[in-house]
Amino acid sequence: MKLHELITASLTGQATLVIKNANVVNVFTNEIIKADVALAEDTIIGVGEGYSAPVEIDAEGAYLCPGFIDAHVHIESSMVIPDSFARVIMPFGTTTIIADPHEIANVAGTAGIRAIYKLSDDLPLRVMFMMPSCVPATPFEHSGATLIAEDMAQFLRKSRMLGLGEVMDCGSAINCSKDMLDKLRLFDGKPIDGHAPLLSGRALNAYRIAGPSTDHECSNFDEVLEKLRTGMKILIRIGSAANNMDEIFREIVARKLPTDNMMFCTDDKHIENIQQEGHINCIARLAVKCGMDPIEAVKMASYNAARAYGLRNIGAIAPGYKGDMVLFKDLKDFEVKQVFTRFGKPYEDKPTPMPIIPPAVFNSVHLPPLSKESFALHAKEVMPVISLIEGQLVNTRKDLPVLRDENGLFISGNGLNKLAVVERHHATGNIGLGILDGFGIKNGAIASTVGHDSHNLVIAGDNDDDMLIAAEALESCGGGFCVVSRGIVLARLPLPIGGIMTDAPVEDVLELQRALLDAAKYIGISASNDPLVTLSFLALPVIPSIRLTDRGLFDSINFQFIE
Amino acid sequence: MKLHELITASLTGQATLVIKNANVVNVFTNEIIKADVALAEDTIIGVGEGYSAPVEIDAEGAYLCPGFIDAHVHIESSMVIPDSFARVIMPFGTTTIIADPHEIANVAGTAGIRAIYKLSDDLPLRVMFMMPSCVPATPFEHSGATLIAEDMAQFLRKSRMLGLGEVMDCGSAINCSKDMLDKLRLFDGKPIDGHAPLLSGRALNAYRIAGPSTDHECSNFDEVLEKLRTGMKILIRIGSAANNMDEIFREIVARKLPTDNMMFCTDDKHIENIQQEGHINCIARLAVKCGMDPIEAVKMASYNAARAYGLRNIGAIAPGYKGDMVLFKDLKDFEVKQVFTRFGKPYEDKPTPMPIIPPAVFNSVHLPPLSKESFALHAKEVMPVISLIEGQLVNTRKDLPVLRDENGLFISGNGLNKLAVVERHHATGNIGLGILDGFGIKNGAIASTVGHDSHNLVIAGDNDDDMLIAAEALESCGGGFCVVSRGIVLARLPLPIGGIMTDAPVEDVLELQRALLDAAKYIGISASNDPLVTLSFLALPVIPSIRLTDRGLFDSINFQFIE
Question: A141, A145, A329, B95: which has the fewest C-beta neighbours closer than 10 Å?
Fold first, then answer.
């Protein structure tokens, strides 16, 4: 509808759809107002009494909120294409996501970004983007592509590209690397996402001045408070892996901190977890459970994010705002009664007919010639070990005595496994090797081409034979996950799009994923951490404390290689 | 300082100025934190302990706040040039103004806007602008210039032009006049100020959808609440003329309304009033007196306005923000201890050396040939009368019996005077005549070329002789104010810049203004309303209820001429 038609429709009350008898949450006044909401096509034209329309929906007193917003998410981490992802999250009331396509960018560069932008164009889900800022994530690894400021300029005028994505490479920002400052300057005045776990004091000040104005990595309240004081917007994240938010919510409530610079995100949350727990609505539920005022929780889940990212026409139910809304049965459990899409229409679950996937994102796995010997790891008596922490992405470095064969090569045992990261984009032959504590694999291997953020091939195992077979099994299907035991591929999830996504139906993906988890359990991996998530983050050098890239073992607190 | 220098300075703590021992108001956390604030040139690089610098200032425990922001003001209404205006308001802690130069635009069009933009370029006061949207204010009057969307496009890229100024012509917006929608579309996505006194219901919805997203005209709490619910940002205004804010503040506090979409403005406040009461700090003082939390009041006076107008680097004391700050002795009376300018330097009162005023804004008064007969008003027994309300800009229409001579011409008496509005830009000969209740002039006339917003010549008097002399007295000095009695000019304030401003020193302006007020009192004008302000608003057809333009008597509720 054109502007003059909308103005006239609102003046005369000519609606195309009216939601009757709703308890409407007003994010501007913190009121819940019993009213009808009138829409003309995709736009709200009035909130009040006396509207009628060809289509009328009875809300039966349910709570009408602005559609929820995931302020920071990587669609690729769902392993399905945007259309399928939308159908997973929309039933939970999320109507907008702010996506950082840095996974596909690490594999396929600007062609990858264009592909996912195109695949999310016509969905009922509003998909906005942030430009991946760190491809590769750090100079300490090799990815499939490198993005410099010059590559990014072409995206500046795209209407759904809101700003610069998470600046994970804090060191480059603080130390004024020319490449990084070029990117920051290019996006000056637009939203710039930060990613600065545990960054503090003057380093945090310098990071803020460099440009990033949000953070989604806080793992305790003091970190929230310090970052908030600097003017950073805090994205409270509950994804699949990291989860320590109860204390943070309780402290925010206890100290009566203003929440207008806080919002919610999932970052990486697996489909199975979403289906079980919900999406952004499950973060709102936790907030309320921890004492947060329900209207404040709704604002954190919608309005605050819209405002932070400059989305002027969503995040509120008021004249001129778009019809993205969600009806909740209550503001405690946030169980969804009905969702209204960005088209101002009731959400219905149906797939987009046959999305065309750009060919550039297929055929991404290119391995060097591998043999058992490729995984031989010369070890000293005591070795630095990557030690997992239950329920956290953050890990710790331990220095432990290890078993060795007669040639001084590392042998799995005493709960320690071998970890390998193989550069898989350009067959360079780069292989990083390390030791992993906490997986407990016996007689097998698990492998993945999903390996944040460079998406190299990550393999953990207790023997080189199975590790080699796992590598070959993934090369042959264009990437994905697999579990191998005693020479046999027990389970495999092919991810032919960039080695990280598939256009297969969500149900098929979940079934194969369950098979993978069963197989992982069979080879002894403890079920307390999701082994697929854990594996795929072991190569990410921006999360503390110790990681393995294709270039070797990395100290991700001091940002240097180990030995 | 360049970005990399700032980043490095903040990382190493290399400050050029440190404010020690301040109680720093943090607008993000609503905390008051005892700390030092370190600046590198004009930018804050750290808030905390352990900073030293070549210049150190001891705050002695005073309260350091972000510099206050006047969110909506017409510099021209001060009658002095920007440099002088800055020196009046900065001692009260206002460091930024968002100015709508629509007064000079009504006189001199785009040349007038360029002139005031240039005159405010290098001041210690941060002067931002909104593009005047209604020049003339309505189609119901003649001004010196007409601005259409095409004229405005040249200003879009100017860094200090933030958006579209107050859309006073609500009717054109709601009724989709092409001219108005062209302007609104041109500024789509930028801040658009509204001006919609008493607009309500579906008309308000339509106005919101058309674009305006702020309002500074609310005169009661219900109006605040209704507009706030639609997502409008509320500018609480305390200027010279309108003043009804105590009730509004008390209700906001009582109902615990969120204040993040509220801010402060003066709109039009005479220098004398500023010097007596203060500027934005006096609104904060009233808010706190009415029960507002002091930190919320500080945010309304600074951060909220910065955020509403997209000023990303002011409104907070945090790394990366500019050094515009103010030290208050307490957060109750808001008495200023020290001000820090946008250059991050302590404010010192000194004039800009010899500002060069563009010639285009001189010589703006062009009257038609006038005689006593120009003011002859044929009257019926009962006439519609403009009746003033004490302490308000809003007036009421009364229909009163009037005195007439033998020719049926109106004669002053029974407290009624004559009012004339003479088109004065292009000598067209247009003269509007009406009757005024509440001024009580005896044996004299008062005249002004400041006549919002078209700035025609407004004359009130009880006899045509003195009205004619008043007109001539202003023509001969390029415009201004004057008071005449029995053929003698008792007092005159020349305003040679557009007939509305002068580059004379503030002290001289005030002295002449006092002389004018004395003279006004001498001819019987009650002192309860400022007669200069009252007079200059009598021709503004966007303020209820009844006004006089050069085209005649106007019903400014139903937007139509009377008779």
Answer: A329
Question: A148: burial class by Cβ within 10 Å (0-12, 13-18, 19+)?
Answer: middle
Helices B178-186, B201-210: crossing angle, 10 deg rounding: 50
Which DSSP string do the residues of A328-379 spell out, in sequence order? ES-SSS--EEEEE-TTSSB----PPS-PPPPGGGS----PPP--GGGG--B-
B321 contacts in A (CB within 8 Å)?
231
CB contact B2 to A (< 8 Å): no
Say yes or no for a CB contact (<8 Å) between B229 and A11: no
> Does any CB of chain B come closer than 8 Å to the CB of residue A28?
yes
Find where tokens 């943090």 sit: B26
| Interchain CB distance below 8 Å, B209 and A46 | no
**Chain A contacts in chain B segment 136-175 (CB below 8 A):** 173-174
- Please name the residues in contact with A178: beta carbons below 8 A apart, sequence gap of 6 or more: none
Residue B407 forms contact with A (CB below 8 Å): no
Q: pTM for the full model?
A: 0.92
CB atoms within 10 A of CB A514: 13
| Bridge partner residues of A435 (DSSP) | A418
A198 Cβ under 8 Å from any chain B Cβ: no
> Which mean pLDDT values do the consecutive 10-residue runs of chain A (563 residues) have?
96 97 98 98 96 96 98 96 97 98 97 96 96 90 95 96 96 95 97 95 98 95 97 94 83 97 95 95 98 98 98 97 98 98 94 83 96 96 95 90 97 96 97 96 97 95 98 97 98 98 96 95 86 92 92 93 90
Rounded to an integer, what distance in angstroms lies between the CA atom of residue B134 and that of residue B205?
20
Residues forming a β-bridge with B399: B384
DSSP per-residue string spanning B15-47: -SEEEEEEEEEETTTTEEEEEEEEEETTEEEEE
Window A:42-81, CB contacts with B under 8 Å: 43, 45-48
Which strands, in side-by-side order, build the sheet including B546-549? B546-549, B552-555, B560-561
Q: How many CA atoms lie within 13 A of A220 on its CB side?
A: 5
CA distance A93 to A546: 37
Question: Which chain A residues are Cβ-neighbours of B209 within 8 angstroms?
Answer: 3, 6-7, 10, 43, 45, 319-320
**B178 torsion bin: left (phi>0), alpha (psi -120 to 50), beta (else):** alpha
**Amino acid code (one letter) for A341:** T
B-chain residues near A252 (CB < 8 A): none
Identify which of B8, B55, B18 has the alpha carbon closest to the alpha carbon of residue B38. Answer: B18
Long-range CB contacts (within 8 A, 24+) of A552-557: A552/A432, A552/A433, A552/A434, A553/A384, A553/A386, A553/A432, A553/A434, A554/A140, A555/A397, A557/A198
| Contact by Cβ (8 Å): A99, A74 | yes
With vertex at residue B54, the alpha carbon angle to CA B52 and CA B60, rounded to the nearest 5 degrees, is 60
Taking the CA of residue A306 and the nearest CA in chain B, the distance in Å comes to 13
What are the strands, taking DSSP E only, across A289-334?
325-328
Cβ of A206 and B318 within 8 Å?
Answer: no
Residue listed under structure tokens 């955020």: B307
Residue B11: its chain A contacts at CB < 8 A?
174, 202-203, 205-206
